Amino acid sequence: MSRCRWLTSPGSFLTSYDFQVEIDGATLPILQAELRATNMGENADDPEQSEYLARVHWLDARPREQAVWEKGMFANQNVVAKLRQPFTLQRLVEVFRVATNETPE
């Protein structure tokens, strides 16, 4: 399994045509990478119809077998969601040992 490392800062977003990733030390457009989302390149040349991708800076990554889940945690099937549920936030801070001075909105 290859490891990906993001090339730009979190908060940026680009069309699928312009988005680049680094895989095993090589930089390439994501549309040339091995993808599960095989239709991601549809309308890539049309800024109004293209898929847009946002960068994520992962602080910790674990195998599926070590996934963190407890009854009562926030779950959402939407593409984008803002995590505000205090129980889930607290458990994730504890499990991933993340120091934070932010309070949920």
Mean pLDDT, to the nearest integer, reads 80
Through-space gap between termini: 37 Å
The counted number of beta strands is 5
Report the biggest beta sheet as strand number plus sense, adding barrel if it closes.
3 strands, antiparallel
Helix content: 10-25%
Range of strand content: 15-25%
> Runs with pLDDT <50, length 5+?
1-8
Note the quaternary state here.
single chain
**Which term fits the overall shape?**
elongated
Summed up, the helix count is 1
Query: How many distinct folded domains?
Result: 2
> Which class best fits the helix and strand makeup?
alpha+beta
Output the strand order for the largest sheet: 1-3-4
- The radius of gyration is 17 Å
H/E order of the elements? Answer: EEEEEH
Labels describing this entry:
single chain; 105 residues; alpha+beta; three-stranded antiparallel β-sheet; 10% helix; 16% strand; disordered N terminus
Give a structural overview.
The chain is an alpha+beta fold. It has two domains: 4-54, no CATH class; 64-96, no CATH class. It has one helix spanning 86-96; strands at residues 4-6, 13-15, 20-23, 26-29, 52-54. The strands form two sheets. Strands 1-3-4 form a three-stranded antiparallel beta sheet, with no helix packed on it. Strands 2-5 form a two-stranded antiparallel ribbon. A hairpin with a 2-residue loop joins strand 3 (20-23) and strand 4 (26-29). The longest helix is centred in the C-terminal third of the chain and has 11 residues, at 86-96. The termini are far apart.
